[in-house]
Amino acid sequence: MRTAPAGIRLVKEANNPWYEVTLIEGRNREIRRMFEKVGHHVEKIKRVRYGPLTLDVPPGKFRALTEVEVDRLRTVCNKPMAAAKRSMA
To answer: Which ranges of the chain does DSSP label H, i.e. alpha helix?
Structure first.
């Protein structure tokens, strides 16, 4: 299976190193498969961003999106503001 290129950066070098992985498209278990292919076992994955949104809320909690975040999502989705308001009515 071919996917879009991923960016990988070493964050912490140790016996159990930490990497920052940036995906354009996230397929099921893509990170685990990439690392297994080069002989590295993935113990834990923590998602810190989803598109333009920073995931800054503890697990199990939520918060309302700000107007800026909603605008960024609309921009990413290429959905004009007027069309979005009509669909909400």
So the answer is: 30-37, 67-77, 81-88
CB distance 22 to 29 below 8 Å: no
Sorted by sequence, the CB contacts under 8 Å of residue 18 that are 6+ apart come out as: 10, 11, 12
22-35: pLDDT as tens digits: 888 777 888 898 89
Beta strand pairing call for 18-22 and 49-50:
unpaired
Alpha carbon separation from 11 to 17, 20, 45 (Å, rounded): 8, 6, 14
Q: Evaluate whether 19 touches 10 at the Cβ level (below 8 Å).
A: yes
pTM reported for the whole predicted model: 0.64
C-alpha–C-alpha distance, residues 44 and 81, integer Å: 38
